[in-house]
């Protein structure tokens, strides 16, 4: 598309302009029976429409060509490419035409990296030194970084435990688990006793199940019952060598005490 090539055309500065006043209306071929005259088509209206279309074509970086009657369509395909793609490739020519990308505009470069503009009227090139673009995923860990972090952290999660069976006795039963924590953290501890009594039977008297940390005189947790019992607790863990102990203490030496299974397990979770 292009302007007229014809006799009696003028340069733009001499082109007819729209009237300063009047009521806009629609065109008609007229109706003689009703006395309606046909609409005159002034040159200024043609000039207005062509100016609009040429501005659209030029904004897409297309040079007007009167042998190509599809330039308006081509301009639309260029200017609305982002809507078709979701995120359009960075285009230096388009950046110049629109006076630079606006702030928060998102583009993708030839390597497939996504960038977001950090300034209005941004004519810099994504990835270049001093460019006003940053990675769309700035502040987010990459898959490699996440994998490395998980791998490093997973290596610091540690667990252990012991289960011991004892014959029936009124003696105190006890043992200790030893662990060296690489850093400060938390122990999740499960401690339990299973009483090997026949169905419906219990130990002849109460028995205490206690858990101790690092040999402290007071139990972290304690309970007494003639039945099977268990504890699940958390214990703040200091970095370095630690001990977690368990005791099962019958409260009486009389009666028939049944065999028991004493269990103590821990999971160490690092603080960082």
CATH architecture field of the largest domain:
Sandwich
Mean pLDDT: 91
- Helix tally equals 5
SS-based class: alpha+beta
Q: Strand portion, in percent?
A: 25-35%
Q: What is the tally of beta strands?
A: 11
- Give the terminus-to-terminus CA distance: 67 Å
**Which sequence of strands runs across the widest sheet?**
4-11-6-9
Unreliable parts: none
Helix content: 10-25%
Q: Would you state the CATH class of the largest domain?
A: Mainly Beta
User: What general form does the structure show?
Assistant: rod-shaped
Can you tell me the CATH topology of the largest domain? Jelly Rolls
Biggest beta-sheet profile: 4 strands, antiparallel
Q: How many structural domains in the coordinates?
A: 3
| Global Rg | 42 Å
Order of helices and strands: HHHHEEEHEEEEEEEE
Task: Explain this structure.
This protein has 272 residues and is of the alpha+beta class. The chain folds into 3 domains: 67 residues, no CATH class; 59 residues, no CATH class; 113 residues, Jelly Rolls (Sandwich). It is 18% helix and 30% strand. The protein has 5 helices and 11 strands. Strands 4-11-6-9 form a 4-stranded antiparallel sheet, with no helix packed on it. Strands 5-10-7-8 form a 4-stranded antiparallel sheet, with no helix packed on it. The model has no long low-confidence stretch (mean pLDDT 91).
